């Protein structure tokens, strides 16, 4: 069953501050790689699942997609989309929620940053304090 934390005010207030929401696609670290595998969108029908603020939907329209549908996720929708369309799926990588205390660690000597992955291999439901408590 999908988890919807985006309607929680404490989470939402922090989520909208992420670069990917402030700067759009250019603020999403995965965008260059994702863009490189996209087909020419001219004349295509595009389904944007979990569209959030609609950054990709607008990109698709600007790149001549014939029709763009931006909707939220459901199992039936995914089944139908897989039957009818080519599907490229991008989700928030668990690297952000894997650490028991998600944050950048800064080396005091060098100033280099690292992101701890202490619980990355743990399977199943994760609850952490990322952007808001209990996510």
How do the strands and helices of this protein lay out in sequence?
Elements: H1 9-15, H2 19-22, H3 31-37, E1 45-49, H4 55-62, E2 67-71, H5 75-84, E3 105-106, E4 113-114
Parallel strand pairs: 1-2
Antiparallel strand pairs: 3-4
Describe, in plain words, how this protein is organized in 3D.
By secondary structure, the protein is an alpha+beta fold. The protein is built from five helices and four strands, in the order H-H-H-E-H-E-H-E-E. It folds into two domains: 9-91, 3-Layer(aba) Sandwich (Rossmann fold), CATH 3.40.50.150; 93-135, no CATH class. 27% of the residues lie in helices and 10% in strands. A two-stranded parallel sheet has the order 1-2. Strands 3-4 form a two-stranded antiparallel sheet. Residues 74-78 have low confidence and may be disordered.
Radius of gyration: 17 Å
Structural class: alpha+beta
What is the CATH superfamily of the largest domain?
Vaccinia Virus protein VP39
How are the strands ordered across the major sheet? 1-2
Q: How many domains, as an integer?
A: 2
Kindly state the mean pLDDT as a whole number?
A: 79
Inertia-based shape: globular
């Amino acid at each position: 069953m999908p988890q919807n934390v985006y309607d929680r005010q404490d989470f939402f207030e922090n989520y909208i501050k992420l670069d990917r929401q402030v700067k759009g696609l250019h603020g999403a670290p995965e965008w260059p790689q994702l863009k490189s595998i996209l087909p020419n969108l001219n004349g295509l029908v595009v389904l944007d699942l979990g569209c959030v603020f609609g950054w990709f939907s607008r990109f698709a329209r600007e790149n001549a997609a014939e029709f763009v549908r931006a909707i939220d996720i459901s199992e039936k929708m995914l089944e139908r989309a897989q039957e009818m369309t080519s599907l490229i799926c991008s989700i928030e990588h668990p690297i952000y929620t894997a650490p028991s205390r998600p944050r950048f660690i800064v080396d005091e000597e060098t100033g280099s940053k690292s992101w701890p992955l202490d619980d990355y291999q743990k399977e199943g439901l994760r609850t952490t304090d990322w952007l808001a408590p209990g996510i």
